[in-house]
Specification:
The complex is a heterotrimer of chains A (105), B (123) and C (96). In chain A, 51% of the residues lie in helices and 0% in strands. Chain A has one domain. Chain A is mainly α and 105 residues long. Chain A contains 5 helices and no strands. Chain B is of the alpha/beta class and 123 residues long. Helices cover 28% and strands 17% of the residues of chain B. The longest helix of chain B has 14 residues. Chain C has 96 residues and is an alpha/beta fold. Chain C has one domain: Hypothetical Protein Ychn, Chain: A. Chain C has a 5-stranded parallel beta sheet with strand order 4-3-2-1-5. Classes of the chains: A mainly alpha (105), B alpha/beta (123), C alpha/beta (96). Chains in contact: A-B, B-C. Chains A and B meet through α3 of A and α1 of B.
Chain lengths: 105, 123, 96
C-alpha cells in the first residue's frame, strides 16, 4: 500500500515509477471498482498510450485508440463507460498511474 | 460551445517546441478544441515548423515530448495539418519523417486557408 | 477578410510571419512595439505597403513611441476605432 503522500489532491499518482498492479488495485478500490480482465486490458492500453504519445488521452482519443488496438467493439464510449463510470479517460488514467488528462471533459 | 456549432477553428502554431511554453499551449488548445468536438485544423508557421522535426528527445530536460504529442493528433480527429513550405525549406525539414503528416503550403495558400476559417488562434 | 493585430517589433519573427499571410483586403492594426513598422520611409513599412492590406496604428502606442507624426499613409485609430475594426472584419488574428 502506498501512503496518501504518494498521491496528489485529486488522487492521481505523483510519480509514474511508483505504479504497479498492486497500486492499481489500491486506487481502484478507492473508486469502488473491482478490476476484471476487461479493466486490465484498458489499463495496459492506457500505459501503452502514455509511453507512445507522452500524454494521457482525452476521451475522444482513448475511444479511437481502443478501437484500433482492441477492436471496434471496444472502441466505443459506452463500453469504456461500463468499465470506468463517469469519465473513463480520467478514471482509467488514474488507475493506470498516469497524470490527469489535460483536456478532460 | 456545442457540437452543432460547426464553426471551423484554425490554430496557428508559431513557436519552436522547447524555447517557451507557447508551443505546448498552442498544441493543447488544438487538442482541447477537438476534445470538445469542434472542427479544428492546424497550421505550423515560421519557427512553429520546428515542432515537426523528427527525433526530438527531451528526456534530459524533464519536459514533455511535443513531437510524440503531435503524433497523437489523428486520434483527436485532427486530420488537416498544414505547414509553411517556405519555413520548412529554410530549416531543411524532412516532412516525410515528421511526427504527423502535414501538407506544405506556399504563402498564398496559407492566406487562403486563413480566410476559410471562422476562428483564428495564433501562438 | 481578416483583421490582423501586430504587437511585436518589425525585427521579430511575428512580423515576418504576419507579413507573409497578409493579403489585399485584410487589415493590419499595429500596436505596442508593432507601431515601429508604421514609420514612413522604412523598409518594413514598404513591405507592409506592398501587401495591399489596410494599415492602422493605435494612437496611444504610437504617441508613446514618438512615431505619431511619422506614420503618413497609415490610419491612426484609438481604442474605439479598434472595436469598430473588430466589428468590420469577420475574423481576427493576433501576432505577438
Amino acid at each position: 500500500m502506498l501512503p496518501p503522500s504518494a498521491f496528489d489532491r485529486e488522487g492521481f499518482l505523483c510519480r509514474l515509477d511508483d505504479w504497479s498492479p498492486a497500486v492499481a488495485e489500491q486506487i481502484a478500490a478507492g473508486e469502488q471498482i473491482v478490476l476484471t480482465e476487461a479493466h486490465w486490458e484498458v489499463i495496459h492500453l492506457l500505459r501503452q498510450y502514455y509511453s507512445e504519445f507522452d500524454s494521457s488521452p482525452a476521451m475522444r482519443a482513448l475511444v479511437k485508440y481502443c478501437g484500433f488496438k482492441l477492436g471496434v467493439d471496444k472502441g466505443r464510449s459506452i463500453y469504456l463507460l461500463s468499465l470506468f463510470p463517469g469519465s473513463p479517460a480520467r478514471l482509467g488514467s488514474k488507475i493506470a498511474g498516469l497524470p490527469k488528462p489535460a483536456n478532460c471533459l | 460551445m456545442n457540437a452543432t456549432d460547426g464553426k471551423r477553428t484554425l490554430v496557428l502554431i508559431r513557436h519552436s517546441p522547447y524555447g517557451s511554453s507557447l508551443a505546448r499551449a498552442s498544441v493543447d488548445v488544438a487538442l482541447a478544441t477537438a476534445a470538445f468536438e469542434q472542427p479544428v485544423n492546424l497550421l505550423f508557421v515560421g519557427d512553429g515548423v520546428l515542432q515537426l522535426l523528427s527525433g526530438q528527445d527531451c528526456e534530459a530536460l524533464g519536459v514533455k515530448n511535443l513531437g510524440r504529442l503531435l503524433s497523437s493528433l489523428p486520434l483527436y480527429d485532427i486530420d488537416h495539418v498544414y505547414v509553411d513550405a517556405e519555413a520548412a525549406a529554410r530549416y531543411q525539414l524532412d516532412l516525410d519523417a515528421a511526427p504527423v503528416a502535414a501538407l506544405p503550403l506556399d504563402p498564398g495558400a496559407m492566406a487562403e486557408l486563413v480566410s476559410t476559417h471562422d476562428h483564428l488562434l495564433g501562438f | 477578410m481578416t483583421l490582423h493585430t501586430l504587437n511585436a517589433s518589425p525585427a521579430s519573427a511575428a512580423f515576418a510571419d504576419c507579413l507573409r499571410l497578409l493579403t489585399a483586403g485584410d487589415a493590419l492594426l499595429l500596436m505596442g512595439d508593432g507601431v515601429y513598422a508604421a514609420l514612413a520611409g522604412c523598409s518594413h513599412r514598404a513591405e507592409l505597403d506592398t501587401s495591399g492590406a489596410m494599415l492602422y496604428v493605435l494612437r496611444d502606442d504610437a504617441a508613446a513611441a514618438g512615431v505619431l507624426d511619422r506614420v503618413d499613409g497609415v490610419t491612426v485609430v484609438d481604442i474605439d476605432g479598434f472595436v469598430t475594426l473588430s466589428e468590420q472584419y469577420a475574423r481576427q488574428l493576433a501576432w505577438f
